[in-house]
Write a structure and sequence with these properties.
The complex is a heterodimer of chains A (about 575) and B (about 90).
Chain A: H1 3-24, H2 30-35, H3 42-53, H4 56-69, H5 74-98, H6 103-110, H7 114-146, H8 151-201, H9 206-209, H10 221-231, H11 245-261, H12 263-266, H13 275-311, H14 326-333, E1 337-338, E2 361-362, H15 366-374, H16 379-417, H17 423-446, H18 455-476, H19 482-504, H20 532-549, H21 555-564, H22 570-575
Antiparallel strand pairs in A: 1-2
Helix pairs in contact in A: 1-8, 1-16, 3-8, 3-13, 4-13, 4-15, 4-16, 5-11, 5-13, 6-7, 7-8, 7-16, 7-17, 7-18, 7-19, 8-13, 8-16, 8-17, 10-13, 11-18, 13-15, 15-16, 16-17, 18-19, 18-20, 19-20
Chain B: H1 6-37, H2 39-42, E1 46-47, E2 50-51, H3 52-82
Antiparallel strand pairs in B: 1-2
The chains are: A mainly alpha (about 575), B mainly alpha (about 90).
């Protein structure tokens, strides 16, 4: 059977499951729509959180980044997992104890201010919208590569699927589809990795394979990789630092606290029954995430070695252009892979030197998707990878859309502008907001604005510099005031946006740069993607300073802070709803 | 459901914070310490094909994070029992 046909069957089967779940898990109340009724088992929530969290960037992009960055790519591995330790200890249990539906709701209540709530809603919408554009693009690309549809058809199909389970089921529908999507994406990621690890090292566990010797030799895989890349003039794989030690430090820290501050991840912890479940659920989420995240570096190293050896089968003997494998030609047609025979010898020279390098384009995103083809795995594995990429993008998109729509219907409508709205009307409003959010995200996916390229980085920077510090101070200090919190969020976000836009142009329009005289990475050599932690420090400093000179929070707020620190009686808060 | 006295609530929070600091130090050491600041020193040691610093950065830190969360969950469960602040079913 040909590949496109098998892919249609596999992807169609997974979509049928998602729609089936949507029909089964309809939401009947706002509590079901916002927090899935609050009765999700911690292990199930951990699995849903893993799918919610792992986006097209984790599934498709990350291994490719690591393959070309080597050791420097570790910032993503540590940064995107270490945040869960922060979540489990510093945020999730207390926010769960508070027992409300959204992140801006906590910020608005704790800082006794509608302004704080609205600033939080704005921060949430900016970071979730920028994030969701990337998912929409991922859906369109996966469709056009594997199902041979055009980009628009792919995008519309994805929107319809999400529409089904997100509008009907809200958090309830999303939770159960995310569990199914996790199963699909983790199988799609690990099966090819196991095959490739077996082929190269004879060890079925990729985590061990990366540290093993190559089949039939005494040479360690990583040593061979180091040698191969260095011979072509690239930096040593296992020690290649990203810019500087300080930059790696800041990058990791920004991703960690950005992870802990992303609203679509935090609201998942509102769905478990108890405070102790919020703690253990974060642990389970990390277990499920780690299965992919510890496999990714093995996929990265092995794919890099495979590509190197395809192009240079033996030292000095480069691949003949006429003899290049089928997958090579396939990816050339997508424009993501490009060769140019500069010296006209009919072979592909690959080198770190741009003058002589003939593999002129090798898009990093290809690696995971082409991996099964490079390793000559059967067609059903390739089809599974397509379904996995779609599952990763759909599950994250749905989580983000819920965070956006609940901020609109609950925090703007219910809490700010129409406090007397009935529950039924609010449920309808939340469905309407969800439909609008999907349409908006689809529109942005079809007409990606100039800033789409830098979006994920911006989302982390914003979450790290605005939402995370506000939440942490809200829980850990009784003395931070509304003026302090608002000033802190605005300064943190402002600083981060200033630095990112100074490098990349306002709204990522390349022409709209300013202060070019400062050069790049001028603040201690830190790159814009790693700047979130600096914004967070500014946020903390400003908030604490302003709180010193403004009137103390009222007594009831100080009592509230004391109350959320103790698990007992978390149902009391619920009764107010 | 007995309510916590002011004093024992403070003691509960103090013990919780002490635990967070202890686990936070380990969290910092395995990632920022072993994976970034001390990576060159640890890379002198080789375990199988892995240089040790590289292993921490791409594998070891993640395994430790999981262990930390489950340890915290267990320890807090005990603390909740000791102070009698567990949630009712």
């Amino acid at each position: 059977m040909d590949l496109a046909f098998i892919t249609y069957i596999v992807v169609g089967f997974t979509f049928a499951i998602y729609i089936g779940i949507a029909i089964w898990a309809r939401a009947g109340s706002t509590k079901e729509f916002y927090v899935a009724g609050g009765g999700v088992h911690p292990v199930a929530n951990g699995m849903a959180t893993a799918a919610d969290w792992m986006s097209a960037a984790s599934f498709i992009g990350m291994a490719g980044l690591i393959a070309f960055m080597g050791y420097g790519g570790s910032v993503f591995l540590m940064g995107w997992t270490g945040g869960y330790v922060i979540l489990a200890m510093l945020l999730a249990p207390y926010l769960r104890k508070y027992g409300k539906f959204t992140v801006p709701e906590f910020i608005g209540d704790r800082f006794y201010s509608d302004t704080a709530r609205i600033v939080a809603v704005i921060c949430l919408i900016i970071c979730s919208v920028t994030y969701v554009i990337g998912q929409m693009k991922g859906i369109g690309v996966a469709f056009s590569r594997f199902l041979e549809t055009d980009y628009e058809t792919g995008l519309y199909t994805g929107m319809i699927i999400v529409f089904f389970y997100a509008v009907l089921g809200g958090m309830k529908g999303i939770t159960y589809t995310q569990i199914a999507q996790y199963c699909v994406l983790i199988l799609a990621y690990t099966i090819p990795a196991i095959f490739i690890s077996l082929q190269l090292t004879g060890n079925p566990l990729p985590q061990l394979g990366l540290g093993s010797t190559l089949v039939g030799t005494d040479t360690y895989l990583l040593d061979k990789l180091d040698q191969t890349v260095q011979m072509l003039g690239f930096a040593e794989y296992t020690t290649n630092t990203r810019i500087s030690t300080l930059n790696m430090f800041a990058y990791t820290a920004s991703l960690m606290i950005g992870t802990a501050g992303l609203p679509h991840v935090i609201i998942r912890f509102f769905t478990v029954p108890k405070v102790k479940d919020a703690r253990s659920s974060a642990g389970w989420a990390l277990v499920f995430i780690a299965i992919l995240y510890t496999t990714a570096p093995a996929v990265a190293g092995m794919a890099r070695l495979n590509i190197m050896q395809t192009i240079e089968p033996s030292p000095g003997e480069y691949l003949k252009i006429d003899e290049r494998p089928e997958w090579f030609r396939n990816w050339e047609t997508t424009g993501l892979l490009e060769i140019e025979d500069k010296n006209g010898d009919g072979r592909i020279q690959y080198s770190a030197d741009p003058e002589t390098n003939e593999l002129v384009k090798l898009d990093r995103d290809i690696l995971v998707l082409a991996n099964p083809e490079i390793a000559q795995l059967p067609n059903w594995v390739i089809a599974l990878v397509a379904a996995g990429g779609l599952a990763a993008a759909l599950s994250t998109a749905a989580g983000l859309l819920l965070a956006i729509s609940s901020a609109i219907s609950h925090d703007l409508l219910k809490s700010t502008f129409m406090p007397n709205i009935s529950e039924k009307a609010e449920l309808n409003a939340s469905r309407g907001a969800m439909a609008l959010a999907i349409a908006g995200a689809g529109y942005l996916g079809l007409h990606p604005p100039g800033f789409a390229a830098g979006t994920v980085a911006l989302a982390f920077g914003l979450a790290a510099s605005s939402i995370f510090p506000a939440l942490m101070m809200g829980i850990f200090s009784q003395k931070v005031t509304r003026e302090g919190a608002v000033a802190g969020m605005l300064c943190g976000i402002g600083m981060t946006l200033f630095y990112v836009f100074q490098h990349k142009g306002i709204m990522f329009v390349a022409d709209w740069t300013y202060l070019e005289g400062l050069g790049s990475n001028w603040f201690l050599g830190i790159e814009p993607n790693a700047f979130g932690v600096v914004g967070a420090i500014v946020n903390f400093a400003v908030a604490l300073a302003v709180s010193k000179v403004t009137a103390e929070p009222p007594e009831r707020i100080q009592d509230l802070v004391e109350d959320i620190r103790v698990p007992m009686g978390s149902d009391v808060a619920h009764a107010h709803h | 459901m007995s309510h916590l006295s002011e004093k024992s609530a403070q003691e509960y929070w103090r013990r919780n914070k002490a635990l967070m600091v202890k686990l936070g130090i380990i969290w910092f050491i395995v990632s920022y310490g072993c994976g970034i600041l001390l990576v060159d020193v640890l890379n002198q040691i080789q375990i199988g094909g892995y240089k040790l610093g590289f292993w921490f950065a791409q594998q070891g830190a993640i395994y430790t994070f999981i262990g930390l969360i489950f340890y915290y969950t267990r320890a807090m469960h005990k603390l909740d029992k000791e102070f009698n602040v567990e949630e009712q079913d």
